[in-house]
Specification:
Fumarase C, Chain B, domain 1; 19 helices; purine biosynthesis; Fumarase C, Chain A, domain 2; elongated; Ribonucleotide Reductase Protein R1, domain 1; Fumarate_lyase_N; two-stranded parallel sheet; mainly alpha; about 450 residues; N6-(1,2-dicarboxyethyl)AMP AMP-lyase (fumarate-forming) activity; Adenylosuccinate lyase
């Protein structure tokens, strides 16, 4: 059998690449290496701008050229690093050699020994991951989540008054509206989005074991903690003053737990909408040319929600593992985080793919108001809650002498299907005030939705 040409192993880099390609800008190996070059270059510029060790500030033109190493980072640099790493067997050292090589071509050999000065690989790596992950979240993942929330919010407003039967424990229960149910999910996601936006992306820059030992030996007079803090903050990150060789990854655990939480709320949405489709509450809008089944021509399968469900599970599996393992490092350093962090993009990729499916799926359904109405009209017994509550209020007010209203309605309704006429006859005989009796006689399952319409206004 002829061997296949080289193929992507992950579906994120094959079948689904177009849906998640935005993450590759930041969470790919190339994106990480570009960030590493950025950190190395900015550290060079910091040292020279402060005339450390007798160096002189670079000219504006030299600064622009040096920053061009990461601003214009491209395929030639990617290939150069691949070749160099094949020799060095060390990815960060290859980046250092790239910067040194480019300094020579820019005529800046004089500052070459300031490249990677007093740095351990993790000084570069932790800042690079913080930069790439924060950019991926801000530029790619959050806007996609924002889009789903906005779609849900619009649907909530559109269907705010569309009464439907609730099902608690899968059984008929006090009605709600479809809009309010969608608003519940939008509200939950909005809170998580705010928490994710508030993530602190921490960075350390303190040498081989976090002690600034090499720094102090090189210049005992410098305020190295202030230098470290100023440099980390110049990259838009939050300085972590107390670490081992590695930044402790606590911010990553916090972020991935929040994203995984969002995944699970979205999973709840996917399974609920799937269920509403199976109940006939939502009709699926046929898409031109699409096939639902290879043998049953009539079918329109809810594949967007099924795909979202599966990808959310995969995403949370990866992100939960990252959050659980990254916070542990043996003594001052072990290398377990090196491989695991390379899968950050996988975790976000499956979540992003699910968000794409949900956005599409929510745009391909239409509410069947007749189905909602028919379901409500078949379940008048749900008004038992309303009737017994009104009776209890009337007893307290002294307008009724009925004892144990709950038991009375339980006897009438539990495990039984009763219709409008049955309830009207029952209410008309009740020992309650005229106003209360009138309210109950006017009540229908479709009108027994409380403040559902108004509650949609609570969405931001």
């Amino acid at each position: 059998m002829t061997a296949l040409p080289a193929q992507p192993l992950s579906p994120l880099d094959g079948r689904y690449q177009s849906a998640v390609s935005g993450l590759g800008e930041y969470l790919s190996e190339a994106g990480l290496n570009r960030a590493r070059v950025q950190v190395e270059v900015e550290w060079l510029l910091y040292l020279t701008s402060h005339s450390m060790f007798g160096s002189s500030p670079l000219t504006a033109e030299q600064t622009q050229s040096l920053r061009g190493l990461y601003i214009d980072f491209g395929q030639a640099d990617i290939d150069w690093l691949a070749e160099k790493e094949a020799v060095t067997r060390h990815d960060v050292k290859a980046v250092e050699y790239l910067v040194r090589d480019r300094l020579a071509s820019l005529g800046l050999d004089g500052i070459a020994e300031l490249t990677h000065f007093a740095c351990t690989s993790e000084d570069i790596n932790n800042l690079s991951y913080a930069l790439t992950v924060s950019a991926a979240v801000r530029e790619v993942w959050l806007p996609k989540l924002r889009g789903v929330i906005d779609v849900l919010g619009n649907l909530a407003v559109e269907h705010r008054a569309d009464a439907m039967l609730s099902r608690t424990h899968g059984q008929p229960a006090t009605p709600t509206t479809m809009g309010r149910e969608l608003a519940v999910v939008a509200w939950r996601l909005e809170r998580i989005l705010t928490q994710v936006k508030g993530t602190e992306y921490l960075g350390k820059f303190s040498g081989a074991t976090g002690t600034f030992a090499a720094h102090v030996v090189a210049d005992p007079t410098a305020d190295w903690t202030s230098i470290s803090r100023e440099f980390v903050e110049s990259l838009g990150l939050v300085w972590n003053p107390l670490t081992t060789q590695i930044e402790s990854h606590d911010w990553q655990a916090e972020l991935y737990n929040r994203v995984s939480h969002a995944n699970r709320v979205l999973h709840n949405l996917a399974t609920d909408v799937w269920t509403y489709i199976s109940m006939g509450y939502f009709r699926q809008i046929p898409q031109a040319g699409a096939t639902g089944s290879s043998t049953m021509p009539h079918k329109i399968n809810p594949i967007r929600f099924e795909n979202a469900e599966a990808n959310l599970e995969l995403s949370s599996a990866v992100l939960d593992s990252l959050a659980a393992t990254l916070v542990t490092s043996r003594l001052q350093r072990d290398l377990t985080d090196s491989t695991t962090q390379r899968n950050i993009g996988v975790g976000f990729g499956h979540s992003l793919l699910a968000l794409d499916n949900l956005t599409r799926g929510l745009g391909e359904i239409d509410l069947d108001r007749d189905a909602l109405a028919a379901d409500l009209d078949s379940n008048w017994e749900i008004l038992g809650e309303a009737i017994q509550t009104v009776i209890r209020a009337e007893v307290v007010a002294g307008r009724s002498s009925i004892s144990d209203p709950y038991a009375m309605l339980k006897e009438l309704t539990r495990g039984k299907r009763i219709g409008r006429d049955d309830l009207v006859a029952f209410v008309e005989k009740l020992d309650i005030g005229d106003d209360a009796k009138s309210r109950l006689l006017e009540l229908t399952p479709a009108s027994y939705v409380g403040l559902s319409d108004e509650l949609v206004n609570r969405l931001p």
